[in-house]
Structures are given as C-alpha cells and as structure tokens.
Amino acid sequence: MTAVKPTLVTGASGFVGWHVARKLLERGVSVRALVRPSSRVRELDVETFVGDLRDAESLRRAAAGCAVIYHVAADYRLWARDPRELYQSNVDGTRNLLEAARAAGVERVVYTSTVGCIGIPKGGVGDEQTPVALAGMVGAYKRSKFLAEQVALEYARRGLPVVVVNPTAPVGDHDFKPTPTGRIILDFARGAMPAYIDTGLNLVDVADVAEGHRLACERGRVGERYILGAENLTLREAFEKLERVSGVKAPGRRIPYWAALAAGAVTTAWARLAGGEPKAPLDAVRMARKRMFVTSEKAERELGYAPRPVEGALRRAVGWFREQGYC
C-alpha cells in the first residue's frame, strides 16, 4: 500500500497556521509543521520539522515527500527595529519555500497573503481586481507582504500550482502572541482602550479563514487570489460587538487622526531610543487612515466559502484570553 504523503504547514505555531493545521487534522490529513527552534505547536498531534524561512536547506528537508504545502508563516509585525528582518522572512523566505516546493514536486501550494495587498477604492469596497501597487503599501510589513505575493504569483506563472488567499483581520481563540488585531481585543478586554479613531476593517472568524485555506487548496484556480473575510465594520461598531460579548464598556471618545498620528510618532521614536515596542506604532496609525473594506464574493462564488458572523469569534477570543490568563 502506498503511504499517504503528509501536508506541510508553515506557521502552525502561530494563530492562523494553528487553525489551518487543526482543520486539516480534523479531516484526517497527516500534518507536518515547520517550526523555529524556539517554537512549538501546542495541543495538536503533528509531525514537527525544525527550520527557518531564511534557511533554504531546512525548507527543502521539510518539504521533501509532501503532497501539499500551506505557507502561512510570516513575520507579522507593524514595527521592527530592523525592517530588513521582515523582508528576509516574508520575501526571501517565500522564495525559499516555493523553491523547496518545486523541488519536492508538490501537487498544490496555498500561499497566505493579506488583505493589505488588496486595493481599496476611495470610499468604496475593494476586491481582487482593484488596482494596487507597491507605492500604496504603508510600512515594511505591508510592503514585504506585497512583494512576497508577487513572488508567489510569479511562481504560479512559471508552472508551480500556487493559489493565493488574502485573509482580512482574523479573530478567535488560540491567538498566542497575540496578533495586532488580537492585541486590540486584549487591550479592550483589559479596559485599556480609552478612545478610538475613525477607521474601519473587515473582521473574520479565524476558523472560517482556516476553512477558506482548505477550500482554496481543493477548488482554487492556480495563480488566482481569494479574499477571505466576513464583516466590514467601523472600529466603533467592532467595539460595540466586543462590549456585548465581554461586558466591558466600549470607549465613547473618538480622537482625531492627527492626535493619533502624533502619539504614534512619539511612542515609536521613544521605542527606538529606550528599547521595547511602541504602544501605538506609527505605521499602524498610518494604516488606520484608510477603511479596509473588502468583499469575499469571489471566494464565496468559486470556492464555496461561507463565513459566519464574527460575534461568536469575538466571544471565543475574549474567553480564551481570559482562560489563559492574558487579562
């Protein structure tokens, strides 16, 4: 009997990658996880390979014998003392991983991009066809992910079976680090969110994002991008939902953008001088100037993607942070 080939998941020790790995395990898939020496995959029965996106040889070893690769791992920081680290992991690391996939002869690669690589028309809703360029990317994280997505699409044009997914802002349980979006939820639950700015984002249940990855692998067209999102909400609307699920009062004071920008500039400059991370990274504030409203209609039509309302995911996020002692 021919042995079943495993599926490699990069980033399985992180938020989205963990949920992708769990989704695959629930469907009886043998999962191999690429982890850094300092990381581990909690609560899941996976085969682990120690490696690093910047170490091409470790990726070749991890990919060998795999049928499918989900490349979820990324350096997801909205501030870094040395921005070159983001490009090394996100751009060079993606190229290294896709070269390893090519050498292994995998049947499919699902590359996890970000909604930050989707164009947003002024005052409108973006989709996969909205024009966008590198010049429109704010900060090293978005620029590095934009360039990484271009690498993935180039490999698809050259014959590697790559499908790209663009998750919006996932929320839910097991946000270990937490992610920047999870940090907002955690600060809210701690009562450490005294005010808000006038911005908007698309929230999505992380479990639906994981299912979207699986559907993209099975039904996605090579070389295509698929937005995985759910609800377009202003930040105030998101906080109202959090108030309902957490019992914590939502902030009622809105601060002007210029004040937030000034605070971001000060805290970021201080972090560079004193060490540590800024409370409000300047790039994060600059990103908030644009409402990231998008539609997942293409994924719904082509993949059968069916996201649920996000209130349940927000409830799980708050509950998990509290159970784990984050609050």
A few lines on this structure:
The protein is an alpha/beta fold. Helices cover 43% and strands 15% of the residues.
Structural overview:
By secondary structure, the chain is an alpha/beta fold. It contains 11 helices and 12 strands. The protein has a domain at 7-173 and 203-232 and 294-308: NAD(P)-binding Rossmann-like Domain (Rossmann fold). Helices cover 43% and strands 15% of the residues. It has a 7-stranded parallel sheet with strand order 3-2-1-4-5-6-10, with helices on both faces. The mean pLDDT is 94.
What's the arrangement of secondary structure elements?
Blueprint lengths: L6 E4 L4 H12 L4 E5 L11 E4 L5 H8 L4 E4 L12 H21 L3 E5 L26 H19 L4 E6 L1 E3 L8 H10 L5 E2 L3 E6 H14 L5 E4 L2 E4 H12 L6 E2 L2 H18 L7 H6 L9 H7 L7 H13 L4
Parallel strand pairs: 1-2, 1-4, 2-3, 4-5, 5-6, 6-10, 7-9, 8-12
Antiparallel strand pairs: 9-11
